[in-house]
Write a structure and sequence with these properties.
The complex is a heterodimer of chains A (about 300) and B (about 280). With about 300 residues, chain A is of the alpha+beta class. Chain A is about 65% helix and about 10% strand. The chains are: A alpha+beta (about 300), B alpha/beta (about 280).
Chain lengths: ~300, ~280
């Protein structure tokens, strides 16, 4: 009975205050749209960053003079090191083929011979400890003795170690920047929309402050007055949220899904699915508007 | 100016004397019975130093019909607003049915108000509800079941004589009709106490009589009715208890009084001249 009364009151108020209600719905809609776009973007960037992290590896270049057995010995020595996940041998020929495929073959044809060395690509188990791994592979003619690690004779044929980590770091910091920027923007926009919603609802409350005063004088408790407003807020939130989700779904079907075939990053597996995203958005909309309408009432209830 | 002041002082003294007599009489009559309303040395000073009430003590027994009279700003409305716990007294204590308003917590104020019917000069109806919905609201607030609401609302509206206007909105009614709705709303819960702040303030004399009749009938059911008014005709015709306030003080409390004590034309002329300071300013004519 009570609930029925509150629902009736809320819908009556919505009908009577169609314009402010519409404004509040639109504000919620915009907020939800922004969140709906930002959440996947933020997730995609963090997802991208973790993919880059997976690609942390060491390239160990072998001297041209090295013989076949020496190279094999180096391979096993590398495999026996601590924290080594995978060791892949890339011969001069394979490397050249890959390079030519990537950059075009003209330059190498002009060059006449293959300048690329044989190489081992070492993938660490734990990307965070790649520095230690790089240190463990001691290049003989660098002359340095690092701690207790003794240089294996197999390492004598190593020409150079290239730690890909530096590149990785660059990528990570770039994505980190994007991530932080996106978060800041999202937070700012959310604050702005919450303020807007609160203001819109406050306006509709203000328009009815006399009515609220009368209700108080007749003996209505604060919550008796507040519930219809809260329900009103929930309805506004639900409408705005559903509209936003519909628009997002439309955008997803027409734009993202068709682009997905060409742009791989759009389908990063870490991105939240559409359904959970919709639920999160809907919940956020309802919470924001319900709290907004319930709280803004406080000042007018002091009669 | 001086003449005016002494006049008022004399009035005040007279009033206090009479009040003292009547108070003792009343307490004799109702020994052992708790008054519905009691004010004990109540003062109210508004922000900025405006005095609303000054050390007012008043007892209103059960089933009484009482007029609070006096010029605007004398403290009538302050008195009623204090009883509604809309405002708090600066000093003193108010009791309703023997319970001090001081100890009523903020979240129980609503429950206090459900036991006090309220009628206002500007009706204070909810503008976007029909007559029936306005009256029903007072019942919804209390949490009455729908069947009760459906039964009681038409009944009380018939009682105030508006059966044909059940589904009209307040702005479609005349002032008198709106006031009837407001009375219906105030009385639908059958409160033991009904406060009316200038109920006829916006109405013509004919309509006012109708409103007063309603209030009188409500009083006959045992409800204590307190009417703040400056409707001289009404007070004089009804001959009920009259409490006169002046600048926040009770200056008169009569069992079945007139709006103001009899005053001859010449006395009135003296007061008029005194209050406007004409005589004292050296304009003898």
């Amino acid at each position: 009975m009570r609930l029925g009364f509150f629902l009736k009151e809320a819908f009556r108020a919505l009908r009577r205050n169609a314009a402010p209600s519409f404004a509040a719905t639109m504000t919620i809609l915009v907020t939800a749209l922004l969140l709906g776009v930002f959440i996947p973007i933020v997730q995609a960037t963090t997802g991208g960053a973790s993919q880059v992290r997976d690609r942390v590896l060491l390239d160990v270049y072998v001297k041209d003079a090295a013989t076949e057995p020496q190279i094999q010995r180096l391979g096993t020595a590398l495999k026996n090191l601590d924290n080594v996940g995978e060791v892949e041998f890339i011969s001069k020929a394979t490397a050249l083929k890959a390079e030519m495929k990537e950059r075009g073959s003209e330059a190498y044809e002009v060059l006449g011979n293959n300048p690329l060395p044989d190489a081992f690509r070492v993938t660490p188990d734990d990307p965070d400890r790649i520095d230690a791994l790089a240190d463990a592979i001691v290049v003989p003619d660098s002359g340095e003795k690092r701690g207790s690690i003794t240089s294996s004779p197999a390492f004598a044929i190593i020409d150079e170690i290239q730690n890909k980590e530096e590149e990785t770091q660059k990528i990570l910091s770039a994505t980190g920047g994007i991530f932080v920027g996106a978060i800041v923007l999202a937070v700012l926009l959310t604050i702005a929309s919450v303020a807007l919603v609160a203001n819109t609802i406050r306006l509709s409350v203000f328009a009815r402050r006399r009515e609220i005063e009368v209700m108080k004088l007749v003996g209505a408790t604060n919550w008796f007055i507040r519930w219809p407003f809260v329900i009103e807020g929930v309805v506004v939130g639900v409408m705005g949220g559903i509209l936003a989700i519909l628009l997002l779904a439309l955008a997803k079907v027409t734009v993202i899904d068709s682009l997905q075939q060409t742009f791989d990053f759009l389908s990063t597996p870490e991105t939240l699915g559409f359904l959970p995203l919709s639920l999160v958005l809907l919940f956020a909309c309802v919470a924001v508007s319900a709290i907004g309408s319930g709280l803004t009432l406080g000042r007018f209830l002091r009669v | 100016m001086a003449a005016g002041n002494s006049e008022v002082a004399a009035l005040a003294q007279q009033g206090q004397q009479r009040r003292a007599e009547q108070m003792s009489e009343r307490s004799r009559m109702r020994s052992g019975e708790v008054p519905v309303v009691e004010l004990r040395d109540v003062s109210k000073v508004y922000g900025g130093g405006t005095v609303g009430l000054e050390r007012v003590s008043l007892e209103i027994g059960r089933g009484e019909f009482i007029f609070l009279v006096g010029p605007t700003g004398c403290g009538k409305s302050t008195c009623l607003r204090l009883l509604m716990k809309e405002i708090e007294p600066s000093e003193g204590e108010l009791f309703i049915a023997g319970r001090s308003l001081k100890v009523i917590k903020r979240n129980r104020v609503a429950h206090l108000r459900r036991n006090i019917g309220n009628v206002f000069q500007d009706y204070k109806l909810l503008p976007n509800r029909t007559v029936a919905a306005n009256v029903a609201y007072a019942l919804e607030v209390v949490g009455q079941p729908r069947s009760e609401i459906r039964r009681k609302v038409p009944e009380i509206i018939r009682l105030v004589g508006l059966s044909t206007k059940l589904h009209n909105y307040p702005d479609e009614l005349s002032g008198g009709e709106q006031q009837r709705v407001s009375i219906a709303r105030a009385f639908v819960n059958h409160p033991p106490l009904l406060l009316a702040d200038e109920p006829t303030g916006n109405l013509d004399p004919e309509t006012s009589i109708g409103i007063m009749q309603l209030l009188y009938r409500i009083n006959r059911t045992g409800t204590t009715v307190v009417v703040a008014t400056h409707d001289r005709d009404m007070v004089d015709k009804m001959r009920r208890r009259v409490v006169e306030l002046y600048e926040g003080r009770v200056i008169r409390d009569e069992r079945s009084g007139l709006y103001s004590p009899d005053e001859s034309t010449s006395e009135f002329a003296i007061r008029l001249r005194g209050e406007f300071g004409i005589g004292a300013e050296g304009h003898p004519n």
